Amino acid sequence: MSTDRADSSPQHKRQRTSGIDRAIQVLDLLQLQQQALTCYEIAKAVGAPLSTIYSVVDDLVSKAMLERQANGQVWFGPRLYYYGLSYSRHLDLLTIASEEMESLSQQCGEIIQICGRDGDKMVVLAMAEGHDHFHVASRVGTRIPLNWSASGRLLVGHLSQQEREALFNTSAPPSPTGRAETDPLLLAQSAATALKNRLSIQAGESDFSVACIASPICDTNGECRATVSIVVPASKVDQTEPDLRMLVQQCAGIIEMRLGWREI
Question: What is the pLDDT along the chain (264 residues), one digit of tens a residue?
Fold first, then answer.
């Protein structure tokens, strides 16, 4: 994507505008005007050379981010629509999951987390505090290796055996406690089993004396999009009053039903 060349003379020195900035200017202008525009109209509105706008627009059209109409005007392309759909679905998932997370926290009085995957890491997306003084190091935004957590296994359980092994082969480091599994084959197998059982439990793998009981939130294709987990002291991992395992599985199921991913 082309960029504007800065004027080298001191009197007319101006900041160089990158190609990505020009692309954003084009998209922002179309969104603001709410109508298709010609390259000439865009160049005039954003104060850019017409040749630059032609180059930027051609690049965006080739990537399906813009569509060129018969009259030469351009408008948003299908790729932006797909991005919007994904963004909308993510918001729906996080909003609904957060509501059910709060409800589960009220039921059991424990710390509840909604977690997702970012490459070879598990990420805490949302969190509800418990009623007692138990605290954990993992807060919203915390990223930890997939093999350190119960949620991490679930988040890759839908991948093929080959994909799971390849992932864990390159990203299964030892945990601070030394208790996290690092064998790629065992991790790949346990991930598939955990997803099938809709339950994953770990105790003391990432933090001493901390346990996590997690259940997957799966879409209609069986892909684990996120997890809901109860984080408790390790001494509570087998607690049955209330039954934490049952509660977390029920919560995950309710989220799936509210999203239309599971039949009522």
Answer: 544 544 444 444 445 668 899 999 999 999 888 899 999 999 999 999 999 999 999 999 999 999 999 999 999 999 998 888 787 777 789 999 999 999 999 999 999 999 999 999 999 999 999 887 777 777 898 999 999 999 999 999 999 999 999 999 999 999 999 999 999 999 999 999 999 999 999 988 888 889 999 999 999 999 999 999 999 998 888 888 899 999 999 999 999 999 989 876
Q: What is the pTM of this model?
A: 0.68
Query: How buried is 233 (Cβ within 10 angstroms: 0-12 exposed, 13-18 middle, 19+ buried)?
Result: middle
* 208 within 8 A of 175, measured Cβ to Cβ: no
Cα–Cα distance measured from residue 76 to residue 56, given in angstroms and rounded to the nearest whole number: 14
Tokens of 132: 């007692």
Long-range contacts for 33-37 (Cβ within 8 Å, ≥24 apart)?
35/75, 36/69, 36/73, 36/74, 36/75, 37/73, 37/74
For each of the domains in the chain, give its residue range(s) and CATH number, in order of start: 10-76 (1.10.10.10), 84-258 (3.30.450.40)
